Amino acid sequence: MNNQKLILFFVFIFSTFMLFDAWQRDQKPNTSVASVAIAGKSSPASSNAEIPTPQKDVSNSNTQSAPVGLVPASNNESKISAIQNGGETIKVETDILLAEISTMGGDIRHLEFKNHKGTDDKSKNFVLFRSGGNELYVSQSGLIGKDLPNHRARYTSQSLVYRLTNDQKTLEIKLESPESNGIKVNQVYKFSRGSYVIDVGYEIENNSTQAFQPHAYFQLVRDKTPPEGESAMLPTYTGLAVYTQQDKFKKVSFENVDGDKLSFNKSIIDHGWVAIIQHYFVSAFLPPEKMRREFYTKKLGPELYSAGTILTGQTIEPGKKAFIGSPLYAGPSDSKLLEKLAPGFELVVDFGILTVIAVPLFMVLTWIHGWVGNWGIAIILLTVLLKAMFFPLQQASYRAMAKMKKITPKMQQIKERYADDRQRQQKAIMELYQKEKVNPMAGCLPILVQMPVFISLYWTILAAVELRHAPFYGWITDLSAKDPFYILPILMGASMIIQTKLNPEPPDPLQAKMMKIMPIAFSIFFFFFPSGLVLYWLVNNVLSILQQWQINRVLDQENESPGAKA
Hints:
Helices cover 35% and strands 22% of the residues. By secondary structure, it is α+β, with helices and mostly antiparallel strands. Strands 7-8-9-17-14-13-11-12 form an eight-stranded antiparallel β-sheet.
């Protein structure tokens, strides 16, 4: 009975992860890649480009003539030829960032991180924004209205190279546009030392004779190309996201944008942010609180999407100047850092359906890491801590399992004696349980207790950017990646075999064969899991083996002692 439940439990684990995989595939965008483009200077669509339009109740004379709707780029137009048409490239370097800004539209078309290495090639920096080859992921912005500069305007810059020196805390890049109808606009980028936040905005000078209320849009444009190194066995979410106080955190998949099945707040509000999420990294525009805004998502072309916000600035009287802008965060999904930047921003770190368990686990894991300085050691110590926490419960359960093993021969005799009478057989087995004071269900309890912890730790290791490329020892150079030599999964399989030997063997030959196959099957299954998770499971198994062995030894001594009780 106990082993039947154990087998069902393992089947349940396998089914859970298969369902999890299916759910993730349903939540993540389609990973097919197609050739898509943005309308460029020479594109027929460039005159009616993908410029967002604010709602009517915030429109004014300067915004009424903004293009309505969008014209997708031609399927035959390549991304790279469209994105590179016209303009010069401004190279920016800070202590942690390398960026490239185009004078055509002022887009950030390349952004890489010095402190994070590439997924496939660790000798190179990780690149988030890119506009070459078959991939497109850029940041764009502009003002809405006739003759006002948008992300199709041509700017000029005093220099094409900017570098944050050791004595500087901030670095400012100013792009100038020609004055039009008495409105003078400069686009401004401000980089700060040690920060992934880039301030993006517009200095506006009203030299006309009429008051002017600016409306600016800030958008992220990305195609559906999967992030570098994404695994089919461990799919993660790549897509859009919006946060408002009313609707809280909302994922907006590419498929939902295709089908216009959007559920976020589209009204004019004074809070919230819009983002594009991928594994370990996020980009988001985080407008200042209390500033009027509205959010939008659009399909710009075949497998090309934008997510952005339209900001409403203060009215600028003739002869006056004003600034309208939004900070752009583009960097790692570090929950501690994100929660300081904007309300709910830490929610982009997806700890799964058991967040209530995963978050405290990660906090404890981080605390332990602060002491030992190695994430692998921290995982081992966390495993020991969890094992100690559940020790009383597991102690009673393992004693029940050990007793089950002792009475297995008697159970086999009963089954042979009443082979033709199933009802009498079950009654005799229940009487044996009562006589020996054995609970056949107790043996499964410690494993069932571990189930939510296992799933939570899975999400933690999968989602926490802190564990990305975190080394352990020897051949384990990345705890967030699979074991390159499959040594940990093989050791885990061996530990499962030892555990099987310590437990009572099922009287049913078919069940006995399944118990022998399970360690091999799960070892192969764990070949594709992050090595940090396999390390946790291996250490847990080793501790369980030691605990079960000690309990078996104590029970043997009790049975050998005169007058010992069963």
